[in-house]
Amino acid sequence: MIPTILTSIGGVLVAVGLFGLFWCIRLARRAQSGAMSDEELKGAFSKISAVNMASMGGATLGLAMILVGLIL
C-alpha cells in the first residue's frame, strides 16, 4: 500500500516539475524575443530562475520518492 502511494505521489511531483521546466523555457524564449527594458528583463529572469529551481527540486524529490517506493 505505502509503496504504491509513494510512487504515485512521486510521479505527480515529477510531472509537475517537468511542466514547470517547460514553462520556464517558454517564458525565457518569450522574454528574449520581446522588446523589454533592462529592469523588466531582470525581473522576468529572476522569476524564471526561482520557478526553475523549484521545478528541479520538485522533480528531484519526486524521483527520490519513486525510488524509495520501488525499493520498499
Quickly count the helices. Answer: 2
What's the Cα radius of gyration? 16 Å
Low-confidence spans: pLDDT under 50, at least 5 residues?
A: none
Question: Helix/strand/pairing class, anyone?
Answer: mainly alpha
Helix content: over 70%
Our measurement of the CA-to-CA distance between the termini, rounded to an integer number of angstroms, reads 10 Å
Strand count, sense and barrel status of the largest sheet are: none
Tell me what portion of residues adopts beta-strand conformation.
under 5%
* Total strand segments: 0
- Broad shape: rod-shaped
Assembly status: single chain
Query: Taking all residues together, what is the mean pLDDT?
Result: 91
What series of H and E elements makes up the topology? HH
